[in-house]
Design brief:
The complex is a heterodimer of chains A (275) and B (276). Chain A is built from eight helices and seven strands, in the order E-H-E-H-E-H-E-H-E-H-E-H-H-H-E. A seven-stranded parallel β-sheet of chain A has the order 3-2-1-4-5-6-7, with helices on both faces. Helices cover 43% and strands 14% of the residues of chain B. Chain B has a seven-stranded parallel β-sheet, with helices on both faces. The longest helix of chain B has 29 residues. The two termini of chain B are 35 Å apart. The chains are: A alpha/beta (275), B alpha/beta (276). The interface between A and B is large, with 44 and 44 residues. Chain B: This is Mycofactocin-coupled SDR family oxidoreductase.
Amino acid sequence: MKLAGKVAFITGAARGQGRSHAVTLAAEGADIIAVDLCAPLDTVGYPLATPEDLAETVRQVEALDRRIVARVADVRDTASLRAAVDEGVAELGRLDIVSANAGILSSGSTQELTEAAWREMIDINLSGVWRTCKVAIPHVIAGGRGGSLILTSSVAGLKSYPNVGHYVAAKHGVVGLARTLATELGPYGIRVNTVNPTQVDTDMIQNDVMYRLFVPDSLHPTREQFAAASRATGLLPVDWISSRDVSEVVLFLASDAARYVTGISLPVDAGATLR
Amino acid sequence: MTRARNKVALVTGAARGQGRSHAVRLAREGADIIAVDICRQVDTVPYPMPTEDDLAETARLVEETGRRLVTAVADVRDLDELTGVVDDAVERLGRLDIVAANAGIHSGGVPTWEMDDQMWQDLIDVNLTGVWITCKVAVPHLITAGGGSIVITSSVAGMRPFGGIAHYVSAKHALMGLTKTLAQELGQHHIRVNALNPTQVDTPMIMNPLIYQLFLPEDPEPTKERFAVASQEGMLLPTPWVEPGDVSDALVFLSSDEARFITGIGLPVDAGVLAK
């Protein structure tokens, strides 16, 4: 058990990568504080997670005999986020690990994006990560045992893609935030890194918004067409990676195996960063 | 001086500092200028922001070069306001070729987790979203002109961290992403998009107690002289800071045909900070 006795706070935990992180960290002995918005958003063109999804994450963590405090909370709202983490720490006793994972995707060329789409993206994928860190860090410092923050950036935090300028900007911003936090939190023994995945097989990716981004010449691109286009972004012969592949990296960065790893951006990208 | 002859350049944050320098240098190189500045205080900014008198001084300096000029007081956070100002100015000056997305603020000096929400939000809104809005407003005019150059003012903080200013580092990193995405999208229109990454520049945004304190956290009353020593320690070259004109030199280069095949880059003007 790599994380026995530790507590991890995970945003966007109702499904996808967030759920996978929760289950992976719990299987290694961590108790979990899980939050998710569990509601639709105006500028997001695919279904977002539901309270039932979050309940399924709870079920899967409890099936591992770990404790979990799950709350519906919005990373755009410091108060709701702080209440969730404060309640979780009160119940579970401490906080060691933060996975700032909540994120959305929408699309449009940079000059055609609506102001609402830009602002919602920056507010969730960049400022939401900051708010997550802001409410969590005092608990990690108070523990006096160090800790590990893993911020979910993207390959789009290291290189650009057309028609998602707001997403690319936000994910680059997350890299800057992680580097700054690593600078500030080093003296407390708290490590801060980003994980930078390529396309992951989740509901954020397997939808028409993403399919059209990757297959712009087709009116109704299919999953098969997307698979071929997605595969072409990497070096390894895979269409996309699984949430579990990202969770393994999160687990590594959260564990003592990475005790002297801080301030880095770790791609899980099948080679996409080199393309 | 003809490297921008008969072009029209939009400069945001043009009332003083780097923006004023960019406006005057581009005018000396033959460009007409659209000079925009907010000319009022943003609440969470701890040093005095420029005034309409400052913008008038920029106008005077540009007019001395003999080039035409349109000035406007506008907020880069306000899409409708900036659209109105730029559309009107382009109509008066005939075209738009060069964009210097330069407007920016500084605040902070507190650990990331102690920063209040308004301070974070103001800085992200001005330094990141304001640059996006500037580009969104300008790009259709550049496409109409058949090409052009956008220069986005990032920072060395767009490439490496500095403690105490997480919002600034995040915004400036994000601008690198925005720069590269725009370069990808606009290459087909012969529009180049690059970023500048200056170190400390001798402007009112830097020469104030907030920045002195960032560099001299142990010093109860840091002075410009002691800041100079601390700032110099970050550089390879023997200078404590660079001048606005040094950044304008790089901007004029990136905006000119000398850089016609340069797009999607971040160009440090940093006296070696990033190499140290």
